Amino acid sequence: MTIRTIHQPRNGFASGSHPGIKLAYADWGPVDASPEKTIVGVHGITANLIGWDAFAEKLATSGYRFIVYDLRGRGESSKPANGYDLTTHSFDLRALLDYFNIEQANVLGHSLGAAIGVYFSAHYPERVRRLVLLDGGAPLPSDTWQAIARSLDRLGKTFPSLEAYLSLFKASPYFPTWNDYVANYYKYDVIQNQDGTVTPKCQKEAIMEEQHNLNNMEKYLSALHTHIKAPTLILRATDGLLDNGKAGFILTPDGSEKMAQSIPGGGRTIDINGTNHFTILMDEGQGRDEVMSLVTKHLE
Description:
Distance between the termini: 36 Å
Largest sheet: 8 strands, mixed
Radius of gyration: 18 Å
CATH topology: Rossmann fold
Shape: globular
Strand order of the largest sheet: 1-2-4-3-5-6-9-10
Strand content: 15-25%
Number of strands: 10
CATH architecture: 3-Layer(aba) Sandwich
CATH superfamily: Alpha/Beta hydrolase fold, catalytic domain
Number of helices: 11
Helix content: 25-40%
Structural class: alpha/beta
């Protein structure tokens, strides 16, 4: 089920990097946008394309084309038995750009999507005009998996109703303020079964493979930063997901600063005060407006 606001994107399926792989996408804004005004959004580890709606509405009404998609194993995209690693995700991202005949675009990645953005920019520098990393892209702190445990624990389970599923996150520390963007994100996140129960679309086996491969890639991420030629903006959430915001950071101040300093194309890091790993993406107030202003200025 897809829940949309008054700003309607073009939805469809793009070809992935391997035969039979389809990537569900939403294409917002003018189709004739220039490379400077074309952005591709890459979401996080258990997320989906609806998570970008709060950004998409703002960008589309400002003349930007914003293409977002479900990573393989998530949302409405294909769910093959394997291929959940930064290399394969980058192959899919390249295939997505080729599908839309986009030679070069701005890449905006959140969480795992930021790590994909780092890998893609390092290996395909000619395809990336500007890079924006939202709360990710550096080696992960030791408590990362604990911090996002609630998102991971839902996978592979069946919930008695959609309301029960939504209540799991309404009661979580992830979203101090619940809004329609968050509700729509989680409504899209599930399959509604005939008996009224719901099951997350995101495949548990895919995320288990993803975790394993990410842990093995940790020591290489910092090396990849030195190969990024695109000017890069790093936006970091200041509130952690553990210990009342004092711990559970996905991107630490030290990790953010080291990443910015090592990018030869030019890196700049800015803290987004009062946001956590999730609200930096799905806030509908001052946090979103600050992020949007910083992103559009970077792209100009």
